[in-house]
Write a structure and sequence with these properties.
The structure holds 2 protein chains of 2 kinds.
Chain A: E1 14-16, E2 25-31, H1 35-45, E3 52-55, E4 72-73, H2 84-103, E5 107-108, E6 112-116, H3 119-134, E7 141-143, H4 145-151, E8 161-165, E9 169-171, H5 173-186, E10 190-192, E11 197-201, E12 208-212, E13 215-224, H6 230-236, E14 245-254, E15 265-268, E16 278-281, E17 287-290, E18 294-295, H7 306-319, E19 328-338, E20 345-349, E21 354-358, H8 364-384, H9 411-416, E22 423-425, E23 430-431, H10 432-439, H11 448-455, H12 468-476, H13 478-481
Parallel strand pairs in A: 1-10, 2-3, 2-13, 3-10, 6-15, 13-21
Antiparallel strand pairs in A: 4-9, 5-9, 6-8, 7-8, 11-12, 12-13, 14-17, 14-18, 14-19, 16-17, 20-21, 22-23
Chain B: E1 2-12, H1 16-27, E2 33-37, H2 61-75, E3 78-81, E4 84-90, E5 93-98, E6 101-112, E7 116-118, E8 134-136, H3 137-145, E9 154-158, H4 162-173, E10 177-182, H5 192-201, E11 206-207, E12 210-216, E13 223-228, E14 233-237, E15 240-243, E16 247-249, H6 252-256, E17 281-283, H7 294-314, E18 322-326, E19 330-334, E20 337-338, E21 349-354, E22 362-367, E23 370-376, E24 387-390, E25 404-408
Parallel strand pairs in B: 1-2, 1-6, 2-3, 6-17, 8-15, 9-10, 9-15, 10-11, 18-25
Antiparallel strand pairs in B: 4-5, 5-6, 7-16, 12-13, 13-14, 18-20, 19-21, 21-24, 22-23, 22-25
Helix pairs in contact in B: 1-2, 1-7, 3-4
The chains are: A alpha/beta, B alpha/beta.
Chain lengths: ~475, ~425
C-alpha cells in the first residue's frame, strides 16, 4: 500500500469545510489558499509553535487563479530587470524546481522558443536577449529559421527566427498547490474552506477579528493573499493601495494525440500589441493554446466566449496548423490578478499587523516559494516575531505527469494493490487506487473538479462519456472507499 | 514484470462488433480467440440503451448485448473484462493493464473494435461557464441506469437525431422535464413517428436552426443561451444540458499504432475486408464510422470474422489499395479503400454520411475523371444518419489510378 500515512502523529491535521470555526486565537491567518497563500502557509508551518490558519472562500485549495494558468515554470528571463518580480521569479524558479524534484511534482524541462513571425518581432529578439542577460539568465541565444524548423518541424510557414530559452519548463500547477497545502496541514496549519472573509474588525490592539461566512476568526496577524480579491481584503484593512482588474485568459487544451506536434513551449515575441498567445505542451501530455488577454470588471467572469475561442484558433492555425485538426479536450478561462502597477505589491503594515501579497500575476506559480520566504521575512521585520524556521518533513505527491511512470504502468504497485490496475477513467488512465488515495489524502477534494485536479479523472477527451458516472459514484462513496 | 502470452486472434473491444467477430472466428475453428474489454462487463454500448430497436419484438440494448456475450462465450472465445490495452509493443503485440498486472500479448491477427463516443461540449467549442450538469448521452445513461444517480429536474437536449430522442425518453423515465430539443439543422433526423410523439404526446418543443451560444451558471448549470439562424436569441433556464450525437471513433489505439486513418471518418482506413494499412490488423464496427446501429455493427463483426479467418488460412494481404475521397456535403464513406483484385466489400455496400439535408441528389463516383457510377439516390439522405449504396462500381476501379472521388451534387432539399 502506498496511501499516505497519517502525519504527524498526535498533531492536528485539520481541514474543515463547514460548521463553526475553532475557538482559538491564531498567530497568523493567511487569507487565500491559492498557490501563493498555500506557499506562505507552508513557510509559516515550518516555524514551530506558530499557530496558523489558512482560509479560503472556495471549497478547495487552488480553486481561483491558480487552477487555470499556462502551467509554465519560468526562468524569469523576460521580467523587468531590477523589479521585485524579477528577483522573486528568479529565486522561485530554482526553489520550485528543486522542491518539485523532491516532492514528485511533474516538471518537464522542454525549453521555450520565442518565435518571430515578422520583421518587427525579429528585430525585438536582441533586446530580449539583452534583457535576459540583465536578469541573470545567460543561456538564451538567437537562432535562425533553419534551426527553428529543425527543432519544431510542425511549425507553420514563415518563422524568421527565435530566441531559444532552454531553461523554461512545464509543470503541474495543481500538484504544486496541493503539495504546499498538504505539507502545511500535516505540520499543523488549520485549513478552513468555504470560509469567505467579509469583515476585518481591529477591535483590539493585538487582535483582528475576521467576520467569515462561518463565524468569527481571531488572529494576531493577517496575511492577505486573496489574489483577485486582494484589493477587497485590503480595503477591509483600510488600505487603498491598488485595484485588481481581472484580466481574463481563455485557453484551449488539445487532445494528447496532438502532443507529438510540439516539442518546446512556443512563446510569442512580446510587442507593443501585448504578450500574445503561446502553444505549449502540458505535463499531462496535452497541448495548450492561449491565453487571450481581456481586461474585465467582473471577478467571476471565468467563462469562455465565441470570440475568444475564434481568436485563439486563428492564432494557433498560424503557429501550428495541424493542431487545429486535433480534438479539443477542454476550453477554460482564468482570471489574472492584474493591477495598475507594473510590479508585485507586497507590503507589510506593522501598525495593522498585516501583510499584503497582491498583484501576483501569471508568474506567481514560479515565484511562489520565493514570495513565501520574502513574506515571512517581511512579517518578521514588521514585528511578528516568528520562531526560527525548522525543516518540514518532505511530502511525496501522486504523479500526474506523463513523463514519469503512472500507477497503471507499474507492475510492482498493482501486485501490491490491484486497485492500481483497475482503470476507471480510460482517457486519462486513472485507477481506482489513485481515486481512493485522493479521497483519503490530507487535503481531500471538495468536489468532482477537485478530484479531477488531484487525479485527472474525468479530465480527458471524453469528458465523462465513459467514466463520468463511475467517478461520481466513487466520489460520493468517498468514506467507504477509504477502507 | 510483464507476463508475455501468444494467442491466435486478439480482439480489442467486447461490443457487438468485437463479440460477433470473435464468435464467428471461434466457431470457424480459428484457434485461440481472446476478446479484451476495459469495462467491468462485456457487451459494449448497448448495455446502457434501455430502449427497443435492437431486434425483433422490441429487444432492448442490454438483452441484445447479453445475446452477443453468450454467443461469443458459447463459441469458445475467451472474454476478459477489466483489461485496458495501453499501447502497442510491436506490429501485432499489445500491452495491457488489469488488476492482475501487466501483460504483453502477441497475436497472429489483431481486430480493433473500440467503438465510438459522443463529442462532449468542450470538443464542440460551446462557449460559456463550466458548470456541473453538462453531460453527454453516454454519461447520462450510465448515471441513471447503472448508478441510479439523480441527474436534475429540467434539461435541454442538444441534438435531434435518434440518440437525442433516446436521451429524451431516458430523461423522462429519470423524472427530468425536458425544456427543448435544439438542433442546428432545419429538421429532426429521426423517424417522423418518434419526432411527432415527442412533440405532441410529450409536449417537448423541437427548436430547429438553433445553436447553443453560451452555457450559463456558477457551480450548477442555470441555463443556455440560444441563437436562431434568423438572428433571434433566447435564454432557456435548465439545470441539465445533454449533448447528444456527434459521434467520433475511439481511435486512440489505432493512432498510437500508427495506422493510416481516413480523413473523413477519423477511424482507420479499411478496405472491403476490414483490413487496415498494417498486415494482420483489422478494424471493425463503429470505430470505422461513428455511428451505425448495433445490429448493423454486429453484422459487420460477423463479416470481419470471416475475413480474419481467411487471412489466418492463406496469409494474403493486399499489396495495393485505392483510397476513396468525398467532398462536402458528404463527410465520409466506409469502407474507404478499394482493393482492385477483390473490390466488393463484405455485405456488398458502402456507407456514407452527409453534413446537411440535400434532397435526392445525384451521386457520382469517378476515378481520374472517368465515371464509375452515376445514380440518383432513392431517398434523400439525412445528416447524422448513414445511407448506403451498392458496390458493383468498385470492380471498375483501376489499381494504378488515382483516388476515387465520391460526389453528391446538391439538389433542392426535399
Amino acid at each position: 500500500m502506498t496511501s499516505i500515512p497519517p502525519f504527524p502523529p498526535g498533531g492536528g491535521t485539520t481541514v474543515t469545510r463547514g460548521g463553526a470555526l475553532p475557538d482559538v486565537t491564531y498567530d497568523v491567518t493567511v487569507v487565500g489558499a491559492g498557490v501563493v497563500g498555500c506557499a506562505i502557509a507552508r513557510e509559516l508551518a515550518a516555524r514551530p509553535g506558530l499557530r496558523v490558519a489558512l482560509v479560503d472562500a472556495s471549497n478547495d485549495v487552488g480553486d481561483g487563479t491558480s487552477k487555470a494558468n499556462t502551467a509554465i515554470l519560468h526562468t524569469g528571463f523576460d521580467a523587468v530587470p531590477g523589479s521585485l518580480e524579477a528577483r522573486l521569479v528568479r529565486e522561485g524558479s530554482r526553489l520550485l524546481a528543486a522542491y518539485a524534484a523532491g516532492s514528485g511534482i511533474p516538471v518537464e524541462p522542454v525549453g521555450a522558443l520565442l518565435v518571430a513571425w515578422d520583421q518587427e518581432q525579429l528585430d525585438a529578439l536582441p533586446a530580449l536577449l539583452a534583457k535576459a542577460e540583465r536578469n541573470g539568465y545567460d543561456a538564451a541565444r538567437i537562432i535562425g529559421p533553419e534551426e527553428v524548423r529543425t527543432r519544431e518541424p510542425h511549425l507553420g510557414p514563415g518563422a524568421l527566427g527565435a530566441l531559444d530559452v532552454p531553461g523554461e519548463s512545464v509543470i503541474c500547477p495543481w500538484t504544486t498547490v496541493l503539495a504546499y497545502a498538504t505539507q502545511a496541514v500535516r505540520a499543523g496549519v488549520d485549513l478552513h474552506l468555504n470560509c469567505r472573509v467579509n469583515t476585518v474588525d481591529p477591535s483590539d490592539d493585538d487582535l483582528h477579528v475576521l467576520g467569515t461566512e462561518r463565524g468569527a476568526l481571531r488572529t494576531r496577524w493577517l496575511v492577505n493573499a486573496a489574489g483577485l480579491h486582494a484589493d477587497t481584503v485590503d480595503r477591509l484593512l483600510g488600505h487603498h493601495d491598488f485595484t485588481v482588474t481581472p484580466r481574463r485568459g481563455q485557453l484551449i487544451v488539445y487532445d494528447k494525440l496532438a502532443r507529438d506536434l510540439v516539442r518546446h513551449i512556443l512563446l510569442p515575441v512580446p510587442t507593443a500589441l501585448g504578450k500574445g498567445v503561446l502553444v505549449a505542451p502540458t505535463v499531462y501530455g496535452n497541448v495548450l493554446l492561449g491565453p487571450t488577454a481581456e481586461d474585465l470588471d467582473d471577478k467571476s467572469a471565468t467563462g469562455s466566449t465565441a470570440e475568444g475561442i475564434a481568436t485563439l484558433r486563428e492564432k494557433g492555425r498560424r503557429i501550428l496548423p495541424e493542431l487545429l485538426d486535433e480534438e479539443v479536450t477542454a476550453v477554460y478561462a482564468g482570471l489574472r490578478a492584474a493591477t495598475e502597477h507594473d510590479d508585485y505589491r507586497i507590503r507589510a503594515d506593522p501598525g495593522r499587523r498585516a501583510l499584503t501579497v497582491g498583484g501576483i500575476r501569471s508568474t506567481g506559480l514560479t515565484a511562489s516559494l520565493a514570495i513565501a520566504a520574502y513574506a515571512a521575512e517581511l512579517l518578521d521585520d514588521a514585528g511578528a516575531d516568528l520562531p526560527a524556521a525548522g525543516a518540514l518533513p518532505p511530502v511525496r505527491m501522486p504523479n500526474l505527469g506523463e513523463a514519469f511512470p503512472r500507477p497503471y504502468q507499474r507492475a510492482d504497485l498493482i501486485a501490491a494493490d490491484p486497485a492500481y490496475g483497475t482503470v476507471v477513467c480510460h482517457c486519462e488512465r486513472v485507477t481506482r487506487g489513485e481515486i481512493r488515495d485522493a479521497l483519503s489524502a490530507t487535503v481531500p477534494p471538495g468536489s468532482l473538479e477537485g478530484l479531477r485536479r488531484r487525479t485527472r479523472a474525468r479530465g480527458g477527451r471524453c469528458q465523462g462519456f465513459h467514466c463520468g458516472a463511475d467517478v461520481r459514484e466513487l466520489f460520493e462513496r468517498g468514506a467507504e472507499l477509504r477502507d | 514484470m510483464r507476463r508475455e502470452r501468444i494467442v491466435d486472434v486478439l480482439v480489442v473491444g467486447a461490443g457487438p462488433a468485437g463479440l460477433a467477430a470473435a464468435a464467428v472466428l471461434a466457431s470457424l475453428g480459428a484457434g485461440e480467440i481472446e476478446v479484451l474489454d476495459r469495462e467491468p462487463r462485456a457487451g459494449g454500448m448497448p448495455r446502457h440503451c434501455h430502449h427497443g430497436g435492437f431486434g425483433p419484438l422490441g429487444l432492448e440494448g442490454p438483452g441484445f448485448a447479453e445475446r452477443w456475450v453468450r454467443a461469443a462465450e458459447r463459441s469458445g472465445a475467451v472474454l476478459r473484462t477489466g483489461v485496458t490495452v495501453t499501447n502497442w509493443a510491436g506490429p501485432l503485440t499489445l500491452d495491457t493493464t488489469s488488476p492482475r498486472g501487466l501483460e504483453r500479448i502477441t497475436a497472429r491477427a489483431v481486430v480493433l473494435a473500440t467503438g465510438a463516443r459522443e463529442r462532449p461540449r468542450a470538443a464542440r467549442l460551446v462557449p460559456g461557464a463550466r458548470p456541473a450538469g453538462v453531460l453527454t448521452t453516454g454519461e447520462f445513461l450510465r448515471a441513471v441506469h447503472v448508478h441510479r444517480q439523480r441527474v436534475g429536474t429540467r434539461a435541454v437536449v442538444v441534438g435531434a437525431e435518434s440518440v437525442s430522442f433516446a436521451a429524451l425518453d431516458a430523461l423522462r423515465l429519470a423524472g427530468v422535464d425536458v425544456a427543448a430539443l435544439v438542433t442546428e439543422h432545419p429538421r429532426h433526423q429521426t423517424s417522423p413517428v418518434r419526432a411527432l410523439d415527442a412533440r405532441l404526446r410529450r409536449g417537448v418543443p423541437l427548436l430547429t436552426g438553433a445553436t447553443v451560444t453560451e452555457l450559463l451558471g456558477r457551480g450548477r448549470v442555470s441555463g443556455v443561451r440560444l441563437a436562431h439562424r434568423d438572428g433571434r436569441t433566447a435564454h432557456v433556464p435548465c439545470d441539465t444540458v445533454v449533448f447528444t450525437g456527434d459521434f467520433v471513433p475511439e481511435h486512440e489505439l489505432a493512432r498510437r499504432g500508427g495506422l493510416l486513418l481516413d480523413p473523413g471518418t477519423r477511424g482507420p482506413a479499411i478496405d472491403g475486408a476490414f483490413r487496415t494499412a498494417r498486415r494482420g490488423v483489422f478494424a471493425v464496427g463503429n470505430l470505422l464510422h461513428a455511428v451505425e446501429p448495433a445490429r448493423a455493427v454486429a453484422r459487420e463483426g460477423a463479416a470481419a470474422g470471416t475475413a480474419v479467418r481467411r487471412y489466418l488460412a492463406d496469409g494474403d494481404w493486399p499489396s495495393a489499395s485505392v483510397p476513396l475521397r468525398v467532398a462536402a456535403p458528404l463527410v465520409w464513406v466506409a469502407p474507404n479503400l478499394v482493393t482492385p483484385d477483390e473490390p466488393l466489400p463484405y455485405g456488398g455496400r458502402f456507407a456514407l454520411r452527409t453534413a446537411e439535408f440535400v434532397g435526392r441528389a445525384p451521386l457520382v463516383i469517378t476515378q481520374d475523371g472517368r465515371t464509375l457510377h452515376h445514380a440518383r439516390l432513392p431517398r434523400p439522405p439525412v445528416p447524422n444518419r448513414p445511407f448506403h449504396i451498392g458496390g458493383e462500381w468498385a470492380a471498375r476501379v483501376r489499381a494504378d489510378g488515382g483516388p476515387v472521388r465520391v460526389d453528391l451534387f446538391e439538389g433542392a432539399p426535399g
